[in-house]
Amino acid sequence: MCSDAIKGCIFNIQKFSIHDGPGIRTIVFLKGCPLSCQWCSNPESQDYSVNILFDAEKCNRCGKCLDACPHQAISLSTSGLINRDKCIQCGLCVDACPTTALTKSGNLVSVKEVLDEVCKDAVHYRRSDGGLTLSGGEPLAQPEFAEALLKEARTRGVHTAMETTGMASIDVLKKIIPLLDLVLLDIKSFYSEPHKKFTGVESHTILKNALVISQLAKEVAVRIPVIPGFNADPQSIKAIASFITHMSNVSKVHLLPYHNYGQNKYQLLNRKYALVDIKTPNQTLMQELKQIVESFGLVCQIGG
Amino acid sequence: MKGFGEPSARIIALREQILSATPRIETERSIAITASFKETEGQPAVIRRAKAFEHILGELPVVIRDGELIVGSATVEPRSSQIYPEFSNTWIEDEFERIGQRNGDSFQISQEDKQKLRDTVFPYWKGKTTSELATAYMSSETRACMDASVFTVGNYYMNGVGHISVDYAKVLKMGFNGIIKEVADAMLKADKTDPAYIKKEQFYKAVIISCNASVQFAKRYAMKAQELAQSASGQRKAELQKIAEVCATVPANGASNFYEACQSFWFVHLLIGLESNGHSISPGRFDQYMQPYFAMDNSISGELAQELLDCIWVKLNDINKVRDEVSTKAFGGYPMFQNLIVGGQDENGNDATNELSYLCMAATAHVSLPQPSFSVRVWSKTPDQFLNKACELSRLGLGVPAFYNDEVIITALVNRGVTLKDARKYGIIGCVEPQCPGKTEGWHDSAFFNLGKLFEITLNGGKVNGKQLGPVTPDLTGFNSFDELLAAYQKQAEYFVYHLTTADNCVDISHSERAPLPFLSGLVDDCIGRGKTVQEGGAHYNFSGPQGVGAANVGDSLAAIKKLVFDEKKLTLQQLKAALDSNFGHGTQAAVVQSNQDDAFDIVMEAVKKVLQENGTLPADTATISRAVAASSSEGESIRQLLLNDSPKFGNDIDEVDFLTREGAAIYCREVEKYTNPRGGCFQAGLYPASINVLMGTVVGATPDGRLAHEPLADGVSPTRGMDKSGPTAATNSVAKLDHFLASNGTLYNQKFHPSALEGETGLRNMSSLIRSYFDQKGMHVQFNVVNKAVLQAAQKEPEKYRDLVIRIAGYSAQFISLDKSIQDDIIERTEHTF
Asked: What is the ipTM of this complex?
């Protein structure tokens, strides 16, 4: 039996995920990330703690949250409702809200709780060769929890995959990567300076870790988010592809065209979205970049 | 037609004949049956029916349409309808003046024909219909339950029964001449001293008259084809000569090649409808009984075989049925529910998928019309290739095939006394009802029972509109525990299910007395052996199947009361009752109803009631029948939000509510199976709604699941629309927790997908995996709505109702309504490319 002692913070369990590893999968999203990519489509995942989200369109301005808040952090006249400096994310306003305009992102849960939920779809994994995918945030940022989740999944016979930025200590990688059937590893840029500018961290640790991961992993799929103004050009992609040829166990490279589908979540968090003017790269460019990757002898697909 | 080849020019043209046809009401049949009945007064009912059938088949115009290879029509115009006054008829006359003016599904009728019907047909039938006799048999208590809309037995109350799959193979093999010989032998061998033989003899004579009439009908077609051939030239001349040759041979004799088998099949199928007026006359396991003729036919080309099938598929859309006005508004497209199923196993438990199974799929894709209701059987040994092909067909967006689980249905039928061999041969009738073809009178669509109403009555202590209708039990405020509530629900179920089965049996008796069907009976085993019609219990297996509607509403309501009132005490029973009585502050039921007490509303309600007794899919916009008043921010609305948001809902793989839903449905099913019918069979419940869930919702007040008064109930075993928020796997897991074995008259589960979620090889594979894993968990049936642009736009307007809509975005799939509107717009624009 798995221990209930180890708990972690997750912000979502998404079933019937069909593009993050083989078959029909369940994605468990762990909260907290060492990176802060400007295009991040799950901005509520970046903090390690709970976030309160506010959807003004669902609010009927009943004021029940005002009465519920012990810290006077809510005012109907405040844009975004919540004064984020005063808010301690206790969630009492969320409980009081009748319309689900206020929601909470982040739950402290045990390994058993997660796997019990994940295994409700075991019958679907069996038929589709699917399984569990950890995502985030950065799952490696909660190493003990991630390790326990994966061990328990393996005990229960569930195929394991993880989406990762690769940002972690070598010790953590050594513990966790061997527990995975598939690693979905993001490589965003070979160049350190833009990497730092757009993600908040430099690229060299990630690149170094990528080599370690590929040695430890059974199978790696490298995912490149293609972001105009950052890496959506032949030179940037060429550099990444060239780097990938030095990795082992890479089965496939995915080019993921930028989309702004996370943009509205920034509003819910009362945050600013930095990439407002950026458009999804067109098919011609994506095809060109795909050919570049393939010219290095790599198998490449557009999309997950 | 990706993956299915292209239809021939002939099929495209025949299809166009259907699409461009203006349906008419034709009167030949009704005039002929009336004339015949006038001449046979005083004779045994079965003889009168046989003679009338003979007269009808002698009088009906013989029609061979341009380009047809398979011939035989009920009407001169394609997609037109005869009239069947012997079941019920007053509504037809009432609607004469409006019937051609309908916005959809209109029927033209000439002044001359109206006059003929008024003068010579309708007056004769006054007091002689099955409907009137059934009413005479019913007690006032039973009628009171129907008046309160607890259940309806309307389909067979007003119309012929249909809902059967006959032994087509028998005619293919021995022809009607063979059946006549079989009957003659039975007469020879019969014990003439047995007093029962007096009636048997009449039955046998009636079967012989009917079979001869069918042979003569085909001969008329042979002559007509010969006549047309004389003035035709070239290829068509040869085709008509071939038609003449085929119709001279079958169905009088057994078929000796594939063409003859196809034509013989069609005559049988057409004639069953002409005798009975029922819908859901289902070809059943077409790939099984046709395969021998395909296999033996060395001379036929693959193209011709496919084209013959395609011709049959078109013909299935030529048959039509006139329905009342509002019914047709609700059912755009003239549904006939002719269920044709392929795949599955043979009587020995081996996989029976064959070459024809695939050709039938291609025919469905080629013809792309609403009929037949195309189905596939799936079990552990179903080839992946077959299932993938079926998924590919589903992905075309036609809403077919429906998928059926052998592993559940066979066991469920065996549990009802069907032998294992027979159970393995099951086909599907109408919507989702399983039966052993050629041996069963299933009365599958015998009634719809409003589980939502039952629950409302339970909360009101057995009262409807303040008047005691059911047994006295505590009202909502009088329950001291959750168990007391369940016990009251059980007690109310006992009372109303008793009256349901009684009402059904009244209708059943009226059919056996006034509308015995000798032609049909010759094609259903063991009518000849027993010497009686199917209506009198001649079939091996006899059932009556009333459907429960609104299981998810009962389950969600039970869960809400259990959690919020008894477990967490967030709500008192008094608060809940006040909230329900006020319709959560949205205007009370009484006020709403009264405000609409104009004639138009009454007409609509009555008509919708009738419509909804038929099987089918109701377009989403009829949901506007519900008359929710604009939301208010009252106390009632707060309670409603609590019920909606703070209580688990069926469809999310949450045991506590899923098992309550199972129990709510099972209480009904277990009551139903206690009863027997006059044909010597048992009742078995189904859990499918057709589309009556919308109508039934209009007569149910606010419910504790947060549903407003008059809103639709949940459809079939599907979760309440928009309440399954955890994706398709969680929803299937919940649905699979119901007892599908118990609901052996069929369960129906609709799932919606956007085409992009099923794209490519991976999409097909995931779809077939989902079907397999739902079936692994003992679900009975599933069908997929691969959603188009119109639905997405509707989802934008009413997101609450489409929370379960999953779509593919970029590298991932997501819930459509959770996306920002600009992205939704983007995806809506993209949809056209997907198709």
From this structure: 0.89
